[in-house]
Specification:
By secondary structure, the chain is mostly helical. The chain has one domain. The protein is built from seven helices and no strands. Helix 6 crosses helix 7.
């Protein structure tokens, strides 16, 4: 349950930024579209960076505790092979997330790509996702206390 909450917050935020980056009528974005985003739109780049670091599982993000609790549960139930696969997948995913972060901050902006104007609804979704992802990373006990009772509640129905 904790992982689902953290994963939802991270992904809603990341996809809100990515959606904002896409132009009107665009069907897909390419990694080159993010070149220099740190210079063109520092707040969008910072938000996307935070979400990507959370997806990697960096401390003070919800992704860290989400992965920690999932891997801990797998180890407690002696599913070492599953933990190894999960850690390996996290490592491979980190490559792709870090590649995008490098592209945003270490490459020059495309001259034909203007800074995206953030719409109010998207800004609100990003802000709520940022707060939730940070909250889950800094104060996970509040949500953990609730999720520990969830299996009992679900089983009684």
């Amino acid at each position: 349950m904790f992982y689902s909450a953290a994963y939802a917050a991270m992904n809603v935020g990341a996809f809100a930024v990515i959606t904002q980056m896409a132009g009107s009528g665009e069907r897909f974005s390419q990694i080159d579209d993010y070149s220099g985003l740190g210079k063109r739109s520092p707040l969008l780049a910072a938000a996307l960076t935070f979400f990507l670091l959370s997806l990697i599982g960096i401390p003070i993000t919800g992704g860290f505790f989400a992965k920690f609790y999932v891997f801990s549960a797998a180890l407690r139930t002696h599913l070492i092979w599953l933990t190894i696969i999960g850690v390996a997948n996290s490592g491979m995913g980190s490559y792709y997330y870090l590649r995008l972060i490098v592209r945003m901050y270490m490459f020059e902006p495309r001259t034909d790509a203007p800074a995206p104007k953030v719409q109010l609804g998207v800004a609100l979704a990003i802000a709520i996702s940022l707060i939730a992802t940070l909250w889950l990373g800094v104060l996970p006990n509040a949500v953990l206390h609730y999720t520990q009772g969830a299996p009992t509640i679900l089983a009684s129905h």
